[in-house]
# Entry
Amino acid sequence: MLIFPVLVGDIGGTYARFAVLGAAEHSRSRLVRSLTAAHATPAAAIRAALGELAGERPRSALLALAGRVDAPVVPLTNAAWVIDAARIGLEFDLQRVVLVNDYVPVAAALPAFDQHADARLARIGPPPSAAAGTRLAIGPGTGLGAAALVQTGARRAIQATEAAHTDFGACEDRDFAVWPLLEKVRGRVTAESILSGPGLVRLYDAFVRMRSGMPSCTTPAEVIEAARKATDASAAEALLAFVRLLGRFAGDLALTFGAAGGVYLAGGIAPRIVDLLEAGEFRAAFERKAPFETQMRRIPTFVITDPEPAITGLAVLARTWGDVIFEAQGWSAALGGDPRGGSVADCARHATQR
# Structure
């Protein structure tokens, strides 16, 4: 179990967000958000956040990280921080520190959204059906996150994925001209290298090179603004390609996981381009999965417009401890300061035996 109050944190490549959950249901401090680059270490960011928050100090921490969480020491994928569960636990005198992939809590939050009537959702495509099943959370932002929420009898299980780092190739005639011009990341073109904020800029640069032009945009926000204002044809092409390719990727994952329960887009980009996602290219690419088009048409898709779904999901995980199965790493003072990690179940079992 986690001992309350619980420090919850959503630590990404661009922003770090922190809040403290009280023992009472729905008890939560205000959210403190800062640029990851504004602090030299995660401990410095946590210290600054706690300095802004009044109230009882946290006794444990549940931190969602934008990186592969397979050890109690985790380097972020798109930032210079290294998150060390033991160091954080000892520095802040905590009883327990649990680390999870940042899309585990986003997936955990999905049952909190009403598919039929929820102001925090924008529906893209067909109305939801009564079919239950696996749900997917996918998020293009600084990076690209993805996790599946699977119903296993009376319990739910969350499977984090590294789908963002799979190879992503050209499939249609309109892709083949631009693909050779895409900047490779570590020698590869992956889903994340295209379907992320930096990926949108890479797409834009490739279209500029196709036109033998000069780039006028250097950030994702500038590409989106130039496309909307119709001031840069390469920006408009890049944004439309981004929407179509995101639909293809989301459809591939939905087909892989059999996501009859729906696909939810989170992250920093999708809420800013809801109108373009609704325009048709996204769903057309999502459904173009012969011979399974009929099945794909039944899968609902949504954009999560709630700006902090991971914080919502972290609260769900903290307050329903043991009801949701998910992989995590961490540190526990009950192990005598032993910094070894393991799954949540392993950590709990060792703590009980000690």
